[in-house]
Amino acid sequence: MERAAVFDVDGTLVDTNHLHVVAWWEAFRQAGHPVPMHSVHRAVGLPSRDLIARLRGEDRDKDRDGELSAAHKALYGQYFDRLPALPDAGTLLRKLRDDGWSVVLATSASGAELSALRRAIDADDAITATASAEDVESGKPSPEPVRHALELAGVPAERAVFVGDTVWDMEAGARAGVRCVGLLCGGIPRADLEAAGADAVYGDPAGLLASLADSPLAPEA
Q: One GO MF term, please (predicted)?
């Protein structure tokens, strides 16, 4: 039976979390709503509307949300031509493909942003499918992105592992009923990832690749 390795992208395969932090920080600053960078970092990985709600509160002028999202998109877009893949990200995906896993991306990115991320990873030959923001109504920590990824792979939850770098990833995977692997390269502490549902935690894709035989993504005998 097929197995699915589902991957978040930002902060998991591509080193973008702190670029998002700076872009959001500047978008809020330009709008006259300065927020601490550490607070932005803890919110990265949420859909834009949920990130804004977390940082500005439910009593904000919601009519301005679109302007903030557009500003973030424009600021972050300046980096599209030089997004850095994390060490061994593409090698890890190809190894999993060779081990019989269906590799599926589950990301809030879409359009030009998703294309830039895939160029950075440079492993399209190893990716079976992509569940993007355009495919679901609710982003992480809702389980919907992970469940959609499983539908694309045609794999039940018990035959899947979700790899991510934020508590929102771990919560989404746990709610979808899959085993979760956390990576520290997004900047979230190990204890937080474990508390949110991570079954195992590694430093980055290279660390996971080096420990693959003893991980939830180990090859089947």
A: hydrolase activity
Residue 10 pairs in a beta bridge with 14
Q: Where are the beta strands (DSSP E) in 134-208?
A: 160-164, 179-183, 200-202
H-assigned helices in 57-105: 65-77, 89-98
Pick the closest to residue 173 from 146, 151, 133 (CA basis): 146
Question: 65 φ, ψ to 5°?
Answer: -60, -40
Q: Which helix (H) or strand (E) holds 149?
A: helix 144-153
Residue 130, helix vs strand vs coil: strand
* Least confident interval from 20-29, 97-106, 132-141: 132-141
Look at the pTM and tell me if it is higher than 0.90: yes
Give tens-digit pLDDT for 136-172: 888 899 999 999 999 999 999 999 999 999 999 999 9
For position 1, what pLDDT does the model report?
67
Tokens 């290279």, residue? 206
